[in-house]
């Protein structure tokens, strides 16, 4: 791999997958959130200074294929295990963002042999409240302006400007949204069984949270971390649901420290 990120297509488990790769050193596998990871995301260039990374677009997202009848979280979790197996070497750090954090947690429950460390960044995927209380913002059924303000600490600076996006970028955004709906609509952004299985995660785990996240608030993150044996929880100030976007240097510093075992 090179220090400069590049995009390629690879066949993983018989599926054509779009992958961003870059950096040198110990590998990290990145699972994206509601949207795929942009090639110019500043945290990628920061991360590439310290390790190599692979950032695939999940099936149905970005330019990745989605086979017929591949349409459940179960399918995505098994695909994640295929991705882990495909990473060169005998160990990998798995980093999951938001929706990808849910998938990373589900995969870690199965204790894949190559998983050295697990980093969950503002993950969704569990329910901690009673049936009348919503844990995760209903991003599909509230006004986009509400989603925008609850996602970012500084939405005017970091929220996507759709008027400035190219046609290709808009198509990718729409395809990502469609795939997210397919996989997570019912139940909305969680697996009722996952909470009880997080106890099986055996890899050292770091749970990172944006202090200003109002898609899933920090108390949800603290509860998430308590369900994982010996997990560490850390807040990143001046960041919302995507601390890797709003505070890339701080975010990468915490990730690299944990990967090194410091």
Indicate the radius of gyration in whole angstroms. Answer: 17 Å
Order of helices and strands: EEEHEHEHEHHHHEHEHH
The H-level CATH homologous superfamily, spelled out, is Alpha/Beta hydrolase fold, catalytic domain
| CA(first)-CA(last) distance | 25 Å
The percent range for strand residues is 15-25%
- Give the proportion of residues in helices: 25-40%
- Structural class call reads alpha/beta
Number of strands: 8
What would the principal axes of the Cα set say about the shape? globular
Low-pLDDT ranges: none
Please name the CATH architecture: 3-Layer(aba) Sandwich
Concise synopsis of the structure shown:
This protein is α/β, with parallel strands linked by helices. Helices cover about 35% and strands about 20% of the residues. It has one domain (about 5-260): 3-Layer(aba) Sandwich (Rossmann fold).
3D structure, described in words:
The protein is of the alpha/beta class and 262 residues long. The chain has one domain (6-260): Rossmann fold (3-Layer(aba) Sandwich), CATH 3.40.50.1820. 35% of the residues lie in helices and 19% in strands. β7, α8 and β8 form a beta-alpha-beta unit. α2 (73-86) packs across α3. The chain is globular and about 45 Å long.
Defining key terms:
8-stranded mixed beta sheet; 262 residues; 8 strands; Rossmann fold; 10 helices; globular; alpha/beta
SSE topology sketch:
Blueprint: E1 6-12, E2 15-23, E3 27-31, H1 42-47, E4 52-56, H2 73-86, E5 92-97, H3 99-109, E6 115-121, H4 144-151, H5 155-158, H6 167-184, H7 194-197, E7 205-210, H8 218-226, E8 232-236, H9 243-246, H10 248-260
Parallel strand pairs: 3-4, 3-5, 5-6, 6-7, 7-8
Antiparallel strand pairs: 1-2, 2-4
């Amino acid at each position: 791999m090179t220090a400069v990120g590049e995009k390629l297509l690879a066949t993983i488990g018989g599926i054509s997958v779009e992958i961003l790769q870059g950096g040198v050193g110990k590998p990290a596998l990145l699972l994206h959130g509601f949207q795929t990871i942009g090639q110019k995301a500043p945290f990628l260039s920061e991360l590439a200074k310290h390790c190599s990374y692979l950032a695939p677009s999940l099936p149905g997202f970005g330019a990745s294929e989605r086979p017929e009848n591949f349409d459940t979280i179960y399918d995505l979790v098994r695909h994640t295990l295929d991705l882990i197996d495909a990473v060169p070497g005998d160990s990998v750090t798995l980093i999951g963002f938001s929706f990808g954090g849910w998938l990373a947690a589900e995969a870690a429950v199965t204790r894949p042999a190559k998983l050295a460390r697990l980093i969950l960044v503002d993950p969704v995927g569990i329910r901690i409240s009673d049936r009348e209380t919503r844990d995760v913002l209903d991003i599909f059924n509230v006004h986009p302006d509400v989603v925008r303000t609850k996602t970012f600490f500084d939405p005017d600076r970091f929220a996507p400007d759709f008027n400035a996006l190219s046609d290709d970028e808009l198509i990718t955004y729409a395809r990502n949204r469609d795939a997210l709906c397919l996989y997570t609509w019912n139940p909305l952004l969680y697996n009722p069984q996952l909470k009880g299985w997080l106890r099986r995660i055996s890899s050292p785990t770091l749970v990172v949270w944006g202090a200003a996240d109002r898609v899933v608030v920090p108390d949800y993150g603290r509860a998430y971390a308590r369900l994982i044996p010996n997990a560490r929880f850390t807040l990143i100030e001046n960041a919302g649901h995507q601390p890797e976007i709003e505070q890339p240097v701080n975010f990468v510093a915490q990730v690299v420290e944990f990967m090194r075992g410091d």
